[in-house]
Amino acid sequence: xxxxxxxxxxxxxxxxxxxxxxxxxxxxxxxxxxxxxxxxxxxxxxxxxxxxxxxxxxxxxxxxxxxx
Length: 68
Description:
By secondary structure, the protein is an all-alpha fold. It is built from 3 helices and no strands.
């Protein structure tokens, strides 16, 4: 899938306190984040559909995250 660029992930991990980040670590994090994003998005879509809406809202995302 690989929609998320690696460079911002490396910057985020450095901001979190990592002195050095391997490209492999960033790739693994990217894969995990994309998987989690798809799971939350799918749950949020179900919530929006249940509410009779086609548009996802921030509240849908927050509620979907709570159920994960």
